[in-house]
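Assemble and predict.
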Amino acid sequence: MAFGSDPTPAQLASIDRRVSAVMEAPHPAARQVGHRRRRWGMVLLAAAALVVLVGAGTSLFSLYGAIGSGGYRVAWDRSTKLGLSQVHDGYRVTLEAAYADAAQTMLAISIQDTVGGRSSQVGFYGGDLTDEAGRVYTTLSGGSTPADSSSSVNTAWFETPGDGALSGNHHFVFNVPDVGVRQVNPSFSILPDGTWTGDPWDRVAGPWRFEFDLAIAPGTLLSPAGAAAANGVTATLKSILVTPTTVRLKMTYAGLPDGAGSWTAIATVLHDGKRLAVGSSMGGPGAAGEVISTVMGTDNASGSWVIRIDELVGDGPQGQTRLAGPWEIRFVAP
Amino acid sequence: MTNRTKGTAGVEQLEYITCETTRSLDLDDELALAARDDRAAFEPLYVRHRNAVYRYLRTRTTSGDDAADLTALTFERAFVAISRYRPGDAGVRAWLFGIARNASIDHGRRRLAAPAPDRPPDHDDGPEARIVADEAAAELRQRVAALPTDQRDAIVLRFAAGLTAREIGAVLGKTEAASQKLVSRGLAVLKEAYCVCPTGR
């Protein structure tokens, strides 16, 4: 029997979207929608909008400098400015810039309806990125900022393949199969149980295809194999990949209780005393562990590192399970 | 043991730490203080408490959608106000639920109405069991709604939100001891209301 029951998945998604929008608002400390915890569900690339009101005629390119900080800031500042455009059915897709390091690749994509009046919003729904060797760059997340009802600035993040070992100059192909166009008068409704009927978004088919050259900045891969135990659970740091935009930790856990399908760490990462905020956690089932990523990185992996997990939160059919820590792993990289 | 791969650096020191600790309430304070300077730190705070805030607000609203709306509003306000948060005796949860309580009051519901029954979680018990669960939940809500205001608030904060007596006191503006008494008295009233009387009554 429920006394103060938990939210339904639809309600939780609604709450997440609203809070995310407030957190990602461009002032005072703007932050690009980057990684998300797996239990937030798949990223809604076009719907997780950051509302930015701009006047008509404002350059879309000029908006990118104001929509993020941390790792996004580094990626944007160091990106290769491309300015490649294609138009299909009046929709111009511009690959504005690209950045890549050993952990992740970011593309900045502007979308503009050159006809106008056909939408209440336009957004990027996803694309396929490969390099000259046929390596697939898996989509991680993205964000969309409407400039007005007919244009938006978007960023898409991809996992750079190669487990941190890839670097150097590469040739890329980026294919955008379609873009999202939100109806002028959306036809959808929310049912009493919180689910939706209808979809306010339509897809406009392309494709828009781009080819470009880009250098992948190298990262530093460490395998300290540090471990810590608390509450009957041993947390092991299998590897840590350090790049200018993110730090990616691979963790495994032993001794977890049954009942939860995935585990997320409430973690803190410190490098030489500086806190690198954790931005996402991609969990595997049980002891398979998780990949924890920070929203900022560093150019120099040398120095002291502290990985502290204060709590492990498990999600399962019976709800949340919380295990108190802390699990603390320290090491010094030369 | 360390591994070397192309482009890696060696590791000078390893430290294996074994900790047997109990849960500390300082984690929330730490997250809140970190969020004052780094807004990404607000996310774990939000994830930790969003369900509890929803559960509390669900007891103070007549629909799950209203509770979801107020939950989002609570964290929106908390995010905006995080720079002003200062660690106190009662901690982050009391601060957060104070915002939630004010949000529900602002929403215009000063008394727990008799809400529609919760939609029960999906399970295989069959329609009869679900109807029974709906009715039981409705009865409990009505009995809680019938409690005196202070007792009702204390019961809801204790059992829907999971707050301690000290935290309840901070939310309601009472001492810890007074909050404990409110919970005890509220439970006593509920127990009496649920008393199965002997036949022949």
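The helical segments of chain B are 26-37, 42-58, 64-81, 91-106, 127-145, 149-159, 165-172, 176-193.
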